[in-house]
Design a protein that fits this description.
Layout: H1 2-29, H2 41-106, H3 111-173, H4 177-190, H5 195-207, H6 211-224, H7 229-241, H8 245-258, H9 279-282
């Protein structure tokens, strides 16, 4: 359309230029003649004006057409933007609906159920952790309590051992048999299962001439420990003093069996002086 307008304007320009040339030539050829008005000049002017009017109309039409196309292009862009936004919103609603459907199928029908389930899970986990740490704390308290009791018991044992050792030292320095027996009783009061104290007490009773008491104390020592040879030895002394020869020989045999080194003391034990004449006793002596 623009090309046609250009062609029309060019033709109008040529016509106007030819008309002007013709008029100039006529003026040059007849300078002395009086001026005459051409009959074609109004027609040419009219033609030119019509052409100019047509050109303006074509320009207006072209402008209107361009504006219409621009408006249509803008409308198309707006439509595409609106369509894209609408599709995006639809997709989001579809995703949300699908997620809600999945939550419904899983049993979580609402956000309230989700929050309740979450709180339940968190509370359960916290309770498990709390119980675990409580168990550890109780176990640690038990170990500390046991350790403390062991330390207290050890301190008591050390204190008792120190006290018993002190009493033994005093008993070793004491020459009075009755005082020795009292000291041995103090040891037995602290440690009733102290066999050594029982044997030394039985020996002190034997030296005091109370053979029955010595026999009883030796029996107590044997009841506490049947493998303690010196207890049988002390009971053999009491039996020999009481005239129970066979019982004394049996206890001597048992004492040597439990503690073989006691055989070396047979010759030096005064309680067995009456037994030296017996062949069974002589057989117990170690062979030189």
């Amino acid at each position: 359309m623009l090309k046609s307008l250009l062609k029309t304007a060019f033709s109008v320009f040529l016509l106007f230029f030819s008309a002007a040339s013709v008029a100039a030539e006529s003026d040059n050829e007849k300078p002395a003649q009086p001026e005459k008005t051409s009959n074609y000049q109004p027609l040419i002017e009219r033609y030119i004006l019509d052409e100019l009017k047509a050109i303006r109309q074509d320009q207006q039409a072209l402008r209107a057409e361009m504006e219409e196309k621009v408006a249509h292009a803008r409308l198309d862009a707006s439509d595409r933007a609106i369509r894209y936004t609408s599709d995006t919103l639809n997709n989001m609603f579809i995703i949300i609906t699908t997620a809600a459907s999945i939550l419904v199928l899983m049993g979580w029908r609402s956000m309230r159920d989700v929050r309740s389930k979450l709180n339940e899970v968190v509370e359960t986990k916290i309770n498990e952790l709390t119980q675990e740490y409580e168990d550890r704390l109780h176990e640690l308290e038990g170990k500390l309590r046991k350790r403390s009791q062991e330390i207290i018991d050890a301190q008591e044992d050390i204190s008792k051992s120190n006290e018993i050792h002190s009493i033994w030292m005093r008993a070793g320095l004491e020459s009075n048999l009755h005082q020795k027996i009292k000291l041995y009783d103090e040891i037995l009061a602290i440690s009733p299962e102290d066999i050594e104290a029982l044997i030394y007490k039985a020996d002190a009773a034997f030296e005091l001439g109370d053979y029955e008491w010595a026999f009883s104390l030796a029996n107590r020592a044997i009841d506490q420990d049947e493998d303690y040879g010196l207890a049988y030895w002390q009971r053999a002394c009491a039996n020999a003093a009481n005239g129970a020869t066979q019982e004394a020989l049996n206890d001597i045999k048992m004492a040597i069996k439990k503690a073989p080194k006691l055989a070396d003391e047979l010759e030096r034990e005064p309680a067995f002086n009456e037994l030296h004449k017996l062949e069974e006793f002589e057989a117990l002596r170690p062979q030189v």
